[in-house]
């Protein structure tokens, strides 16, 4: 059955791979972006998840065009890394406002129709950094860890209405960011991964798609790592 799916930050990387996976299975897929070009087979809506009004407008556009959001993939995120002695409060809070509070804003807007329909899937894209930690990324790791508490609280809050909330925690993925790593750093990161390679975005997308499917209807409050064994399931 075709559903309305919204992927935030769905114009590149994991988000685009996820949006493509849902579109290929026949779902109606919308993606948020901040001015990027979106493929024709997706419905693009411009949205900054740090702006509550923009989130409201984006959801309204999706509902008018495709119907109420039945699957939300909260993927939009940024990085702004440096050691804590150099990190300003603004750099810390800006990352949390996008990665954690932005996901909360989108979930808050999505759950009303889900609760009324007694059906819905919330999927939050976290990171291995949430539990493994990452030097120089206190803001990013804190925000991604916060998504776990958010999802598990929503799982308890919304479970009686048949709305599930789960987390996917990727490790290092082949993206523009990892492509720009200096060779020695890239090699060191790969050596810390038992499978000795970075993930492809499609490998993360396939887990997200499965969590939104009928086979995962009894899974909620879970954190599923897609990290090649780097975090050993934590």
Describe it:
There is one protein chain. This protein has 234 residues and is α/β, with parallel strands linked by helices. It has one domain (4-223): 3-Layer(aba) Sandwich (Rossmann fold). The chain contains 8 helices and 7 strands, in the order βαββαβαβααβαααβ. It has helices at 13-24, 52-66, 89-117, 129-132, 138-158, 176-179, 183-191, 201-211; strands at 4-7, 28-33, 43-46, 71-74, 120-125, 163-170, 223-226. Strands 3-2-1-4-5-6-7 form a 7-stranded parallel β-sheet, sandwiched between helices. Strand 1, helix 1 and strand 2 (28-33) form a beta-alpha-beta unit. Helix 1 (13-24) packs across helix 8 (201-211). It starts with a strand and ends in an 8-residue tail after the last strand. The mean pLDDT is 94. This is Beta-ketoacyl-ACP reductase. Residues 3-172 form the Ketoreductase domain. InterPro entries: KR_dom, NAD(P)-bd_dom_sf, Sc_DH/Rdtase_CS, SDR, SDR_fam.
Write a compact overview of the structure shown.
By secondary structure, the protein is an alpha/beta fold. 45% of the residues lie in helices and 15% in strands.
């Amino acid at each position: 059955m075709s559903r309305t799916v919204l992927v935030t930050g769905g114009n590149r990387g994991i988000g685009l791979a996820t949006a493509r996976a849902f579109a290929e299975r026949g779902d109606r897929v919308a993606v948020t972006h901040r001015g990027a070009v979106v493929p024709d087979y997706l419905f693009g809506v411009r949205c900054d998840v740090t702006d509550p009004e923009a989130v409201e407008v984006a959801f309204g556009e999706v509902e008018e065009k495709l119907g109420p959001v039945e699957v939300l993939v909260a993927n939009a995120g940024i990085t702004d890394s440096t050691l804590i002695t150099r990190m300003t409060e603004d750099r810390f809070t800006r990352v949390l406002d996008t990665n954690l509070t932005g996901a909360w804003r989108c979930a808050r807007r999505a759950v009303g129709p889900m609760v009324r329909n007694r059906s819905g899937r919330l999927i939050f894209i976290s990171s291995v950094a949430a539990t493994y930690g990452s030097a120089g990324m206190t803001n990013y790791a804190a925000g991604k860890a916060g998504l776990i508490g958010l999802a598990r609280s929503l799982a308890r809050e919304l479970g009686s209405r048949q709305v599930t909330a789960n987390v996917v925690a990727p490790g290092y993925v082949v993206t523009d960011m990892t492509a720009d790593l200096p060779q020695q750093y890239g090699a060191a990161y790969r050596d810390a991964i038992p499978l000795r390679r970075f993930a492809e975005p499609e490998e993360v997308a396939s887990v997200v798609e499965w969590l939104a499917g009928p086979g995962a209807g009894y899974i909620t409050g879970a954190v599923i790592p897609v990290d090649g064994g780097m975090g050993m399931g934590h």
